[in-house]
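Sanity check

After download, print the first record. It should look like this:
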Amino acid sequence: MVWIAKQTRSLESIKNSNTLPYVHPLLQSKWLTANNYNKNATPESAANFDKMVQFHFQLVKAFKEAGVPIVAGTDAGVSGVVAGFALHDELELLVQAGLTPEEALHAATLLAAQWLGMDKLVGSVEPGKLADFILLDENPLTDIKNTRKILTVFVNGVPIEKTKINAMLADLAKRNVASRDKFDWKKTISKRSK
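Expected structure tokens:
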């Protein structure tokens, strides 16, 4: 909701996002040229989105106080919400709303796995579970922003070091820039409507 609220006023948050280069050029084009949150924005709708952001913060606090489990899971695909990267934003917002860093991490791991009925396979580091997890440079319990300080990603128990991750991201960004001219949201949609 925070991303949407920002877009009602300006697309600068998307244009300046350090994760935009990792988004497919067609989706980048859509977000920047056919963004309905921005195109249809009025001062009233912008104010309404701001109220919804505040309501969500209050809702998280109320749920926590009532003992209602909170599960993290970003709306990837929504303009400006980049899959994977946006989960870090969500964790920070959950802490800003009143969860402890530990509670926010549980919302993204064990509680999410339990809600999906997959907690026998994922959601915590235990013998017999799939070995998909991240190793961080710094403790996220002291500062939830430390979830962004990734040292190694383990996929099926296979480590992918930070240097390889950075190289993969750089390659993806390079390919997206190289193919940007091939993808125009408005042209693609106009071809489909014919």
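If your output differs, re-run the checksum step. Summary of this record's structure: The chain is about 50% helix and 5% strand.
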